[in-house]
Amino acid sequence: MFDNYVFTEGTCKNVEDKGQITGFSLQSLITYYRGIPCSMIHDIKVMVDGQEIPREKIRFSPDGTDYFTLDELTTVTTYKWEYGEQGTIFVEQAGGLSGGEHDVTLSIAVRVAYIPVPFGGTKTRQVMITQ
Amino acid sequence: MSDIKRAVSMYSLQDQYARKKMTLSDIFEYLNDLDAGLEFISDQMLKGTPEPSEESLAEWDRLVEQYKPDLVCNDIFINTCLYKNRTLTKKESVDLLIKEIKLAHRLGFKMVRLVSNTPANIIEPALPYAEKYDVVLTLEIHAGMSFDSPLTMEFIEVMKKLNSPYVGLTVDTGIFCRRHPRVSTNYFRDLGTNEEVISYIDHIFASGTDPKQFFAGVRSEGKQFPEELSLFLKTQNDFEYALFADGYEMSPFTILDEYMPYVKHIHGKIYEMTEEGVEYSIPFDELIKYLHKAGYNGYIATEYEGNRFTLPDMPILDKENVTAHQKMLKKYIDEL
């Protein structure tokens, strides 16, 4: 239902820290119609060329400054993922994505009180990485 | 003449705002052009809700001063699922509701809408705050979770017991669908939903009832759908189509008779305004006549939900639908 809001086009890129490529990041709008505390982000999944990224390699940041693992997110109640703001998903992966084209899939599910099952959206994009 | 008034729910303009096509200032201007009030969702357009920063509040004050919107209702949510491993306690939920009441008051709203399935036991403890801050608490009666839903029934019991002008209902007109929304059908058809499922659901509406009532018999036996429908459900989309069909109810307007003293607000749900200027599924002309006769003098706030069913890569016609619905409401209200 919220597939059109997941994985903002043109945001997937390798991330460099102190001269080393430490992973890659991508951005997304929330898969819902309002902002929620980050603890209500139920799950985030990333797939690259058909391979699922292990969940412990995934970090989420609601503001581009502070990053949380998915386990940590479960207690993050004072940071909100605001509506209309890009959240950043960082995947820790030494060397990042190799140069060339990749199929990258992002799935985000959120939990809300009045709907019995977590829901969200999924989007696959062909991403060109230039190195 | 009628005292029924018009507003627009910000649910309708979610895509405009998320994609930064419209700012809050653009929205206020648009509402003034329509001569319609504001139903706000502070979680959506006011950062940090329920505790926005002083800067956010100052910006709100500035815009309200400039555009003088008619502040009708703020839609609030009690996040009882804040934690993954437990549900909030009653005390935690009451505290959240009190914060929301104070925020609504600070923003200038005299009513909040609580989403369906909000726990009924938090209303009485919060009532003194609703009175003190002059904010009416209304539970949304939404198709799929309407009058026969256990949590709604619990709320209504509390509401009748308290019998306070500060506790009432917001009725969503999705409970008055006369047929399945065509935009939803086309959306699921595009995803490959089985035509037999689509036709089965259409036949239920054509027979004069809605899927929830039609399925009630087999559900009392523990089955989700009748056997003949289950045979058609081959994919996840088939299943979801049948499941979401519960979200469109075909109640008679008279279902509201006993609740009208408590009805404080109406969500004018729309899925698709047709070229003839009417809503495809919901007969607003009849609804407005019913409300007028019952003495209703509150607002009808346009809540455009067709955004959810826009086909991939097609523009979301949110403003077009809202404008057309407001024009229709004005016509019917003026005719009374």
TrEMBL record, chain A:
Q: Which residues form the C-glycoside deglycosidase beta subunit domain?
A: 2-114
Give the matching InterPro entries: CGDB (IPR045959)
Family from the record: Belongs to the C-glycoside deglycosidase beta subunit family.
Q: Which Pfam families match?
A: CGDB
Name of the molecule in the record: C-deglycosylation enzyme beta subunit
Its keywords, alphabetically, are:
Carbohydrate metabolism, Lyase
A GO molecular function for this record? lyase activity
- Originating species: Anaerobium acetethylicum
Automatic annotation (TrEMBL), chain B:
Species annotation: Anaerobium acetethylicum
Any idea which UniProt keywords this protein has?
Answer: Isomerase
A Pfam entry, by short name: AP_endonuc_2
Q: Name one GO molecular function term.
A: isomerase activity
Keyword Aminoacyl-tRNA synthetase assigned to the entry: answer is: no
Record-annotated Xylose isomerase-like TIM barrel domain positions: 36-174
| InterPro entries the record matches | Xyl_isomerase-like_sf (IPR036237), Xyl_isomerase-like_TIM-brl (IPR013022)
- Name the chain's protein: Sugar phosphate isomerase/epimerase
Is Isomerase one of the keywords? yes
Which SUPFAM superfamilies is this protein grouped with?
Answer: Xylose isomerase-like (SSF51658)
